[in-house]
């Protein structure tokens, strides 16, 4: 049943990609991932913020970026502002404070649409992979083995779809709080 093991691995990969995608969707909780990959000009080349300084969370809705080179602070602040994420940015020496505004209900609804659309795209990816594996299963000669493999494949898909739904529910709670 190597086809089923292959399916599990592919679906796990899809779930991990979805989790990564969801971390990029903003909630009311600050998360360093929101800004760590923003590229800013440093030493005349674009550099991700995470390579210029450390990023920490300051509850309830702030991030602190402590740059290692004070001359980079203004560039980091400018890069965050240019990213148009709607964050308030202020510089104090080597520290850049990034304030996240409170999410409006309208914005929360918008984010939920994005979450649901993203989840559906990932479910479609899994369906496509399921069909590829189903084609391979149809080549199994023994009819009983073929039916068992198809049933197990469907169980695997159902389990991963449930996991996607749980991720959506979890993200919804995070956004709506």
From TrEMBL:
Entry GO MF terms: ribosomal large subunit binding
Keyword Protein biosynthesis in record: yes
Gene Ontology terms: biological process: translation
Highest taxon in the source lineage: Bacteria
Species for this entry: Candidatus Colwellbacteria bacterium CG10_big_fil_rev_8_21_14_0_10_41_28
Keywords, alphabetical: Coiled coil, Protein biosynthesis
Protein's UniProt name: Ribosome recycling factor
InterPro entries, A to Z: Ribosome_recyc_fac, Ribosome_recyc_fac_dom, RRF_sf
Ribosome recycling factor domain: residues covered: 18-176
PANTHER family in UniProt: MITOCHONDRIAL RIBOSOME RECYCLING FACTOR PSEUDO 1, RIBOSOME RECYCLING FACTOR
Coiled coil: 119-150
Family as reported in the entry's similarity comment: Belongs to the RRF family.
